[in-house]
Amino acid sequence: MAVKELKPQHGFTLIEIIAGIVVVGIITLVVTAGMGPLFKQSVNPWQQVRAAELGQSLINEILSRRFDENGSSAVGEARCGETGGPSCTTIPNDCSNTSYREEASRENFDDVDDYHCLELSGNQVADTLANDLTDDYRQFRLQVRVAVEQPDRLKRIEVTVITPQGQNIDFSAFRGNW
Question: Model pTM greater than 0.90?
């Protein structure tokens, strides 16, 4: 009987395979951990653009309303605070009392003061026609403050949009009584 020669076997041992898996796992962990902050940064500009759209839209909505509840928008009629005209309404500095609002819902707001202390979140974030914008602006929040700058002449409107990451983006505009 002839003796067969054994050919050398090629391959990896169990220890080499386990060491390779551990090395690949560590490399994967380091790469993905380093990329996490990059993903957050790439979302930030997108959220800022969406916040700018939302803030500008609300500013435009507010600016399209009358200066004051007692003011007139008719040509030739006296505006509030003018000689012969009604006095302008006063709004409180804090937001603990919103009884000065004549309208209960945003769809009925007809003057700038009605928006003072308005806070919107979730499905309250809607456009002027009350179309729900939750899908487009999920987790965005809005805050509105109105302050009298020059009695009977100017009101400053401040809109703060809070992004899902908690970043505050502020917008402001002036509404004049003319």
Answer: no
Is residue 110 classed as helix, strand or coil in its secondary structure?
Answer: coil
Say how far apart CA 113 and CA 139 lie, in whole Å: 26
For residue 43, the model assigns a pLDDT of: 59
**What is the rounded distance in angstroms from the CA atom of residue 151 to the CA atom of residue 155?**
8
pLDDT tens, residue by residue, 40-50: 665 577 888 88
Looking at mean pLDDT, say which of 85-89, 158-162, 164-168 comes out highest. Answer: 158-162
Backbone region of residue 16 per phi and psi (left: phi > 0; alpha: psi in -120 to 50; beta: other values): alpha
Q: What are the helix (H) ranges across 10-116?
A: 14-63
3-state helix/strand/coil string of 122-145: HHHCECCCCCECCCCCCCCEEEEE
- Under a CB-based contact definition with an 8 Å cutoff, are residues 151 and 81 in contact? yes
Residue 146 phi, psi (nearest 5): -120, 130
